[in-house]
Amino acid sequence: MALANRKILLIIAGGIAAFKSLDLIRRLREQGASVTPVLTRAAEEFVTPLSASALAAQKVYRDLFDLTDEAEMGHIELSRAADLVVVAPATADLMAKMAGGHANDLASTLLMATDKRVLIAPAMNVRMWTHPATQRNLATLRGDGVLVVGPDDGEMACGEFGPGRMAEVPDIVAAIDAALGHGPLTGRRVIVTSGPTHEPIDPVRYIANRSSGAQGTALAAALRDLGAEVVFVTGPATVPPPAGVQVVAVETAMQMQDAVTSALPADAAIFAAAVADWRMDKAHGSKLKKSRDGLPVLDFAENPDILAGVAQMKAGRPRLVVGFAAETDDVARHATEKRARKGCDWIVANDVSPETGIMGGTENAVMLITEDGAETWPRLPKAQVATRLAARIADALAQRGA
Ligand code: CTP
Q1: Mutate to test the pocket of ligand 1, among 264, 277, 346 (most ligand atoms within 8 A of CB)
Q2: Which of 17, 79, 96, 254 could cross-link to 114 by cystine, CB 3.0-4.6 Å?
Q3: Residue 356: pLDDT above 90?
Q4: pTM of this prediction exceeds 0.85
């Protein structure tokens, strides 16, 4: 039994999907886990404490100010006795509380007090899910290292269609399995580069590009969620790095190359950074003055191609080397040529023409170039592109052997 002796604290929030949580309790127990249910007040409108308790064969915790419970097991202890805290369904309201750090009922207090990983299975109306506030809270929670499963697309209880339906129970069980260290990338080391690089002209000026680091950050988080040990080599990005990864912050292409070299060996290396192709041949040691120096003449030197260097390593090459390509025209052809020229296994290509809004935006439309040709993916939020890509990386590493 995959989850034998694992202890799950299951917080059930108030949504129509709460009925599926009863099935979740049953499936988790079938796998050998013990489940301690916590019901928010709103959840009790959808499922009864008695049914949760009967299925879990455990006491159900219901209210922060239940003095008897506090005497039996305080909320701090309750939040730490588990191996994993699961919130299913996670409503928009509970996600907002979590993102804001509220602790005004038992569920939110447990989530604040826990020292364990937290996995949420969001479920809500499609408009509530796509609302900027929920998406902002989701990004905050991911940044805090909270794991997320779903939501799925589909017909909702309210009659609307779209993302917002709670993930199916077997998918939640699989995510719990992965969170508890049984993920397909457990024991794998993956290097991810991300963000732009800054190439100094003088102590106050630099050459940069518009990369936000969003796609690389989302990918690092998705790989972490599958159990990988992630070394995240990041230039000065505008989005914060994910929790639960080893962050190596760099500024220039040369520093990024050093950081990647030091992080080797690895099972896979993913180059999502927008590395500057050129640096100043000699950065000025003091600030250029317009009165004294006139119009500056900038002499460039070419930066090392970090991706090509790793892809073409004679010994100790990671088994999977993935590059990104930002193109503005004829994406498939350019990216296919780039794959061959650099010697990497895959290229994740995207069209960064200004009208796509992809560079610095929240969505990505990707073409994946592998040895088998080009696959066009639908336009998706960067987090979903990351989840798909991480799953493909896990499959590829499994196929390529230990
Ligand atoms: N890359 C890198 N080191 C560099 C430049 C790029 O590791 N000095 C990696 C990026 O992280 C990305 C891929 O190479 O994975 C992007 O290549 P790109 O810069 O588009 O390739 P170029 O050969 O510079 O192509 P182009 O002619 O389009 O500029």
Answers
A1: 277
A2: 79
A3: no
A4: no
